[in-house]
Structures are given as structure tokens and as C-alpha cells.
Specification:
Length: 152
């Protein structure tokens, strides 16, 4: 079983700045408390093929994660896939960004989760938890981006 969760928010910052902020996955700990550590490989600007390696904590369990950037269309689309082999993994995830009037940006985040092995039994629980937190997750992205990006 696979399934998707998503959230849509509006950030009071210009689309180019929001894109740059979100494309640098090293910012993830600012809005995702489950991310304990993250690094970009190679440690240069994010491009298609860049990998972000992280340690996350879900339900009290630490796991190593690796996500590869699969699409980077400035300033409107970022896509990734999880290349690490975890029981519940992200088959595809991404941000869709849209410039709005007044220098604001609409951001849609989504992740498609799938289970492998025993994860086939756990993916439903992971999806339920992610969907329950989706609006709060979006609010954390908004707050972190507005805090990190200078106002116009």
C-alpha cells in the first residue's frame, strides 16, 4: 500500500527566495523536528542528483535517510525520491511553488509513502500520522521560511 499526504501554505516572501530556502534541504531541521542531522552531498549548490543524508527520529526510532533531488525547475518545482532502504520510504516528494501578488508564494508540499517488507504493515500508520500533522507541518514551513528570509 502506498499513499500521499500534502499541505498547502502561503509564505509572505518572494517565490525565488522561498525556492532557494526550500532547495537547500539543510534547512529542514528548522521546520521538521524529526530531522536530527542533515548534510548535502556534494556540499555545493543543490542540483538534480544532489543527495541529502539525514538522521531522523520517528516514533522513538532513529533511522538514516538519503534523498536524491530528481527535478529542480527554478522557481516552481522541486522533486525528490528516497534512495535509502527503510521499511517506510518516500517514493516521491516535492514542493510546488507559485508566485502570488504582493511578493507572496503559495507552497504545496507532498510525499508519497510506500512500505517495504514489514513496512507494508506500518505505512498506513505512518500515513495517518503524516496526514494528521500535515497542516501543522505546513505552518512550521511558513514560520521557518518567513523567519529565515529577509522581508522584501
Amino acid at each position: 500500500m502506498a499513499g500521499q499526504f500534502e499541505a498547502t501554505i502561503e509564505v509572505d516572501r518572494p517565490v525565488e527566495a522561498v525556492f532557494d530556502y526550500l532547495a537547500d534541504g539543510r534547512n529542514d531541521p528548522q521546520f521538521s523536528p524529526r530531522v536530527l542531522r542533515i548534510e548535502r552531498v556534494p556540499d555545493t549548490s543543490t542540483t538534480v542528483g544532489t543527495v541529502f543524508r539525514s538522521t531522523v527520529k520517528d516514533a522513538g526510532v532513529k533511522t538514516a535517510r538519503e534523498f536524491r533531488i530528481t527535478d529542480l525547475t527554478v522557481p516552481e518545482r522541486i522533486r525528490w525520491t528516497e534512495v535509502s532502504k527503510n521499511s517506510v520510504a518516500v517514493r516521491e516528494g516535492g514542493y510546488d511553488l507559485l508566485a502570488l501578488d504582493g511578493g507572496r508564494t503559495r507552497v504545496r508540499i507532498f510525499n508519497v509513502l510506500e512500505g517495504h517488507g514489514v513496512g507494508k504493515l506500518l505505512v498506513g500508520l505512518a500515513l495517518t500520522a503524516a496526514r494528521k500533522d500535515a497542516d501543522a507541518f505546513g505552518a512550521r514551513i511558513k514560520a521557518a521560511a518567513e523567519s529565515a528570509i529577509d522581508p522584501r
